[in-house]
Write a structure and sequence with these properties.
This is AAA+ ATPase domain-containing protein. This protein is 40% helix and 18% strand. By secondary structure, it is an alpha/beta fold. A 9-stranded mixed sheet has the order 5-4-8-10-3-11-12-13-14, with helices on both faces.
């Protein structure tokens, strides 16, 4: 009879480890199990605040902003495009995507800092509509830019339930669609992502500020994780109206608060651009003869109503052209207004100088144009503002009584009702005109 082998403790441990290895090798991978074994991410406020001291911010020169659209839209930020239904948002969004894809200015006003991949996903329009818009927009580009843009632009129609998150019992729950989107972004790596529209992609109550804030936070996470700017298309509120019929309604449509639903959206996004179709009468007033006979909505105003870095931006005007494409136009009315404003400012400066030279009583700052030329108060205010900006005149306190008067540039002493002597250092010829342009 043979003697049984005696196992040492080390042999026993080795056999157990080998059996475990054989078992794991025979079992399929369990993604949920692997995910649970991944390192736990720190909570947002679990941080070392010493890295964010004022001393470091002062001692280290800050890096330049990472612009997507120079001076306007930054990379890796959340933005929104706001407009009434049918205002041209989707076309403007495709033109934005192709501008980034080609590295060419968008609507003749915003220049990309560099070219990059752009992904436009529409949950409203079908493939034929996207095909036509992309095709005709690419046709407007120079040949070399066409080649570049064709490689970088993808316009995808989607149908069905594509909500990235859903409001449930006061909470905002991520969906499988968000998982699918993140998988696309991981592979595609766009510089710009456009989602058309917010209502299709965020299934939360639009008037619920906490829910909208939480939904935006999910998209901000997407921006950071995949280094892309994300722009949501959204509608204006009903009170804004479908058409801007006068200056007041136009200004209302171009405000950052014009969007439908919760004000949290305007608070969360770092960049917002508004589109406002013009009624035909307002278009004629602003655009001039080119707008005569055109239908309502044939022209639009567009303005960046919010950005968190940089100075406020002016509004521009667009014309709907063949195939619905948008093209920037110069408003004749603005040119005429600028010329009139320059003429009024020049007239006010000349009158202030004349009165100083002849020893007459200076014009009151509050109503000089009213007294001298019979202008309205608002016209005087505009003329005075641009005359002061030009450096042609200054305001000074009266010697007697309250109030201020207008005097030629560099006259620092106060003026009374007594004869006044003009200054010797008058502006150089052409100073006013050059500075008012």
């Amino acid at each position: 009879m043979s003697q049984a082998a005696v196992l040492t403790p080390a042999d026993t441990v080795a056999q157990i480890e080998q059996a475990r290895a054989d078992f794991l090798a025979a079992c399929p991978a369990d993604p949920a199990r692997e995910e649970s074994a991944s390192p736990v991410q720190p909570r947002p406020l679990q941080l070392d605040i010493s890295k964010y001291s004022g001393e470091r911010y002062f001692s280290e020169f800050p890096p330049a902003f990472d612009w997507l659209l120079k001076g306007s839209l930054r990379c890796k930020t959340l933005g929104a495009m706001i407009g009434a239904p049918g205002s041209g948002k989707s076309t403007a969004a495709i033109q934005l995507a192709i501008a980034v894809a080609a590295g060419l200015p968008w609507l003749g006003a915003w220049e990309p800092a560099h070219e990059g991949r752009a992904l436009y996903i529409s949950a409203e329009d079908d493939e034929l509509t996207l095909h036509r818009r992309v095709h005709h927009t690419l046709k407007t580009l120079p040949e070399q830019a066409q080649v570049q843009a064709m490689k970088n632009i993808f316009a995808v129609p989607v149908t069905g339930d594509v909500a990235l998150c859903r409001g449930m019992g006061g909470d905002v729950i991520k969906t499988d669609a968000l998982t699918d989107l993140r998988a696309i972004l991981k592979e595609f790596r766009p510089t710009l992502l456009i989602l058309d529209t917010l209502a299709r992609f965020l299934a939360v109550a639009e008037n619920d500020n906490p829910a909208m804030t939480a939904a935006c936070a999910l998209l901000e996470e997407v921006c950071r994780d995949f280094d892309c700017a994300t722009v949501l298309l959204h509608h204006t509120a009903k009170v804004t109206g479908a058409l801007a019929s006068d200056d007041l309604s136009l200004n209302t449509a171009l405000e950052q608060t014009a969007s439908r639903g919760a004000s949290a959206l305007a608070g969360c996004v770092r960049w917002q651009v508004n589109l406002a179709p013009l009624a035909s009468k307002l278009a004629v007033k602003i655009i001039g003869e080119d707008a005569v006979g055109r239908a309502d909505g044939a022209f639009l105003a567009v303005r960046v109503s919010k950005k968190n870095c940089g100075a406020p931006e002016p509004k521009y005007f667009l014309s709907r052209c063949e195939h619905g494409l948008l093209r920037r136009v110069e408003p004749v009315a603005q040119e005429q207004e600028a010329q009139s404003r320059e003429a009024d400012a020049a007239a006010l400066v000349a009158e202030v100088k004349r009165r100083a030279e002849e020893g007459l009583e200076p014009l009151a700052s509050s109503r000089g144009g009213v007294d001298a030329f019979g202008w309205g108060v608002e016209r005087h205010k505009k003329a005075k503002f641009y005359a002061l900006e030009s450096g042609g005149i200054v305001e000074a306190k009266k010697d007697k009584g309250n109030g201020t008067v207008l005097m030629p540039r560099a006259c620092s002493r106060a003026c009374s009702n007594a004869p006044f002597t003009a200054c010797s250092d008058e502006p150089e010829q052409g100073f006013l005109v050059n500075n008012l342009k």
